Amino acid sequence: MKDWRYRLADQRGTLIALALFLLMFTIYIANHPAGLTANVAQTAANKGVLLAFIAMAQALVVITAGIDLSVGMIFLLTNCLASWIVVGAPVPTALGVAGVLIAGMVCGAINGLLVIYGRLQPIVATIATGAVYFGIALLLRPFPGGSVNEDLADVFTGKLFGVVPSSLVALAAVVLLVWLPFRRSEIGRAAYAAGSSESAAFMSGVPIRRGKFAAYTLAGLLAAVGGLFLTFFTYTGEAAYASGNGYTLWSIAAVVLGGVSLYGGKGSAVGAIFGAFAARTTGDMLFVFDVDPLWQPLLQGIVLMLAVSIGAFGLLRVRNRLEWFG
C-alpha cells in the first residue's frame, strides 16, 4: 500500500498534466470542423512535438534545481545548422544529422561546465550562452533559407500506416532511448539528488557534478532534436529571436504544468511532454473558437496560468519536501 502511495505521489504531476491535455484536446476536437481525423491529429502532433522536445530539455535542467534560458537559442542554432548540412545523399545527410546532434550536446556541455566549474548561477550562465548561440545562428542564417533532405523530412513528418503521426513515434523513441536510461542510471539519480539537496548529496558521496553535467548535455541534445524537427517541418532555417525566446518561456510553463518542481529534485520529462501538449493545445482551442487574433495572446496566457496553477497547487500545501512522498 505504501509503495502504491509513493508511486502515485511521484507521478501526480504527470497524471494531472495528462488529464489537462486530454480535457483540452477533447474540447478542441469536439469543436473542430473536421473532427478527429488522421490529418488533424498529424498537424496537432507535429506542432506539439516541437515544444515537447524543448520541454524535455528544460525538465532535465530544472530537476537539478537549475534553469536553462538558452534552450530556445540552441533550438534555433541547430535549426539553422541543419538547413546547411542535412542535405544531399543518404550518407552526407546522416553525417549532417549527427553533426547537428553533436552541436546541441556541445552547447549543453558548455552550459554545464560554466555552471558546475565556473560556479555561475544557471540563469546568468544560460542567458549569456543563449546570446552567443543566437549570434552563431544569425551568422549561419542572416536571412531565412536553406533546405533539408526532403525524403528524410517526409519520413518524420508524415504518418505511419496512414494513421499514426511519425513525429509521435520519434518522440516516444527519444523517451525510450534518452530519458528512461538517464532516469534509471546512477547519473540520473545523482541529478535528482543534486536538485533535492546538493549539500546532502555531496556529503553522501553522490556524483553530483557528473549528474548535473549529464543533465545539461542531454538538454542540449534534446534541444537539437527539436531544432532538427523544426527543419523537417519547415524545410528551412531561420534565426528568429522571438521564436527562440517564445519556446524558452513556453518550455518553463510546460515543465511547471507537467509537475516538475522548479525547486528541483522532483518531476519527470514525461510530465513535461504532457505539459507541452497541454500548453500547445490552448492556442488550438482559441483557433477553433474563432477568437480574434488580438485577444488570443491574452486569453492563452490566462488559460495557461490557470492550468499551471492547478498543476502547481500541491506545492502550496508542502512545508517540507519529504511530504511529497509521505
Tell me what the structure shows.
The protein is mainly α. The protein has a single domain, classed as ABC transporter involved in vitamin B12 uptake, BtuC (Orthogonal Bundle). It has helices at 2-10, 12-31, 38-63, 71-85, 90-116, 122-140, 150-157, 166-184, 186-203, 208-234, 241-257, 269-288, 296-311, 313-316, and strands at residues 159-160, 164-165. Strands 1-2 form a two-stranded antiparallel ribbon. It is globular. Residues 322-326 have low confidence and may be disordered.
Instruction: Provide the CATH topology.
Output: ABC transporter involved in vitamin B12 uptake, BtuC
CATH architecture: Orthogonal Bundle
Strand content is: under 5%
Largest sheet features: 2 strands, antiparallel
Mean pLDDT: 87
Structural class by SSE content: mainly alpha
| Ends apart, CA distance between termini | 12 Å
Report the CATH C-level class.
Mainly Alpha
Integer count of domains: 1
The largest beta-sheet arranges its strands as 1-2
* Rg estimate, integer Å: 19 Å
Reconstruct the topology from this structure:
Elements: H1 2-10, H2 12-31, H3 38-63, H4 71-85, H5 90-116, H6 122-140, H7 150-157, E1 159-160, E2 164-165, H8 166-184, H9 186-203, H10 208-234, H11 241-257, H12 269-288, H13 296-311, H14 313-316
Antiparallel strand pairs: 1-2
What attributes characterize this protein structure?
326 residues, ABC transporter involved in vitamin B12 uptake, BtuC, two-stranded antiparallel sheet, globular, disordered C terminus
